[in-house]
């Protein structure tokens, strides 16, 4: 009888270890990082001059640092205020695209902080934390952040703003963000010069 208990306990310990290291933590290298991070994986590999090992080490560190982050819920009042802020920022784009990008950048930083992402000392720290949970949407945020000051043309600013809206939607939602139609004002040929 004690041998059966020892075997059952050993099986449970192995099952718990498998759950923790494989299922809960998820795979950490190679193709798993590439599929998890998508375009962000490619961006990091390019930044490391094609060195996939260095890129995967960086992305693995991001997962270790920010993978267990639990998002804080927003109150309905906060959700409504953020939605109103984005609408005002979007309207401002017509008259002042660079100012609208500056506002969108600040709004995304505020929203991510309120959802529980680390504020970080720098934009890159915030973007790295966000990339772990929203890798498909982080590029728009990066583009808004750089386009607000690098002399980017209006069309490129509009595209960055529209792409950043995807991160805004994802942060605003409790689950995966639905594709919103509120970007109609900024569709190609409308509201830009």
TrEMBL record:
The chain crosses the membrane at residues 6-23. Residues 172-193 are annotated as: Disordered. Keywords: Membrane, Transmembrane, Transmembrane helix. This is Secreted protein. It comes from Streptomyces microflavus (Streptomyces lipmanii).
């Amino acid at each position: 009888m004690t041998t059966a208990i020892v075997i059952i306990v050993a099986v449970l310990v192995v099952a718990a270890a498998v759950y923790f290291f494989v299922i809960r933590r998820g795979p950490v290298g190679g193709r798993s990082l590439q599929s998890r991070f998508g375009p962000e994986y490619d961006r990091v590999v390019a930044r490391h001059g094609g060195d996939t090992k260095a890129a995967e080490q960086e992305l693995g560190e991001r997962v270790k640092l920010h993978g267990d982050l639990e998002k804080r819920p927003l109150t309905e009042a906060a959700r409504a205020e953020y939605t109103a802020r984005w609408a005002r920022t979007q309207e401002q784009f017509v008259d002042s695209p660079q100012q609208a990008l500056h506002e969108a950048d600040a709004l995304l930083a505020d929203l991510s902080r309120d959802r529980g992402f680390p504020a970080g000392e720098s934009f890159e720290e915030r973007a790295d934390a966000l990339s772990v949970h929203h890798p498909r949407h982080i590029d728009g945020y990066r583009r808004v952040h750089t386009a607000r000051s690098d002399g980017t043309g209006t069309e490129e600013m509009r595209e960055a703003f529209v792409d950043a809206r995807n991160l805004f939607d994802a942060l605003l939602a409790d689950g995966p963000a639905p594709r919103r139609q509120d970007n109609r004002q900024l569709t190609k040929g409308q509201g830009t010069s």
